[in-house]
Write a structure and sequence with these properties.
Strand content: under 5%
Order of helices and strands: HHHHH
Number of strands: 0
Oligomer: single chain
Radius of gyration: 18 Å
Number of helices: 5
Largest sheet: none
Shape: elongated
Distance between the termini: 13 Å
Length: 137
């Protein structure tokens, strides 16, 4: 079965674009949290600082995944899938509870499922393979 090369390229570009969008969103959330920390009086300063640190680490990690994905580094595929699973769990939580936010849930859920699906598609998976592990042409 022949795979359309432009379809594989479009899938790869979609994955990379979504990873960079997620990294950008995390950087925006980080900026918002820093401004809130400086402007507002948190109920717990230690918790607020810890949240800023965790979001900064997540933003740096997702940015590293996105950059590595552009270079098709093999570990970036697994790391991207792990990030999407974490994002998926946050999305599911956003649909539930007293303070449910379905809008946030959908914004997190759709890209997570899209990226996971595309990264598991064999032609895209093969793009991330080491040269010695790549399928014979």
């Amino acid at each position: 079965m022949s795979v359309n090369a432009s379809g594989v390229r479009a899938a790869f570009v979609t994955v990379v674009a979504l990873l960079f969008a997620e990294a950008g969103a995390l950087l925006a959330v980080l900026a918002w949290l820093v401004v809130d920390l400086l402007v507002l009086q948190p109920s717990s300063f230690a918790t607020a600082v810890a949240l800023v640190v965790v979001v900064a680490i997540a933003a740096a990690w997702v940015t590293a995944i996105a950059v590595a994905s552009v270079r098709r580094v093999p570990w970036s595929r697994a790391a991207a899938i792990v990030w999407q699973v974490l994002q998926l769990s946050i999305a599911v939580g956003a649909f539930q509870g007293l303070f449910a936010r379905p809008d946030v849930g959908w914004v997190l859920l759709v890209p997570a499922i899209t990226v996971i699906g595309l990264l598991l598609w064999p032609p895209v998976r093969d793009l991330y393979a080491r040269p010695e592990d790549a399928p014979a042409a």
